[in-house]
């Protein structure tokens, strides 16, 4: 599994209510997306930066989304270029589903 943190500056600060409305307008695009396990939208407390935290099954799945067209969409929607940070994610604790998810491709000791 891999986590990708996508972050971008906003042209002007927005409120949580504004962020919710904007994020809800794009959320359906990610439903059922192959390889995407979960996505969290975020807004910094000062309302100046926003983005998403994505949990993917693989780097290949993530790379299918983060194309030049996707980056242009983000730029057009938020007037800012996104930065992407990739993180290996060997284990996830999910307290909603009461489960622990681990990457089956990593051998256990």
List descriptors.
3 helices, 35% strand
Question: SSE layout and pairings?
Answer:
Layout: E1 2-9, H1 16-26, E2 36-43, E3 49-56, H2 59-65, H3 68-78, E4 83-88, E5 91-94, E6 99-102
Antiparallel strand pairs: 1-3, 1-4, 2-3, 5-6
Question: Can you walk me through this structure?
Answer:
With 109 residues, the protein is α+β, with helices and mostly antiparallel strands. The chain has one domain: Alpha-Beta Plaits. Helix content is 27%, strand content 35%. A four-stranded antiparallel beta sheet has the order 2-3-1-4. The protein has a two-stranded antiparallel sheet with strand order 5-6. It is globular and about 40 Å long.
In total, the number of strands is 6
What is the number of independent domains?
1
Strand arrangement, major sheet: 2-3-1-4
Whole-number mean pLDDT:
92
Profile the largest sheet. 4 strands, antiparallel
How much beta, percentage-wise? 25-35%
**What is the CATH class?**
Alpha Beta
Q: Name the helix and strand elements from N-terminus to C-terminus, one letter apiece.
A: EHEEHHEEE
Q: Briefly note the CATH topology name.
A: Alpha-Beta Plaits
Please tell me the CATH architecture by its name: 2-Layer Sandwich
Structural class category = alpha+beta
Helix content: 25-40%
Task: Give me the number of helical elements.
Answer: 3
Unreliable sequence segments = none
Cα-atom radius of gyration:
15 Å
N-to-C CA distance: 18 Å
- Shape summary: globular
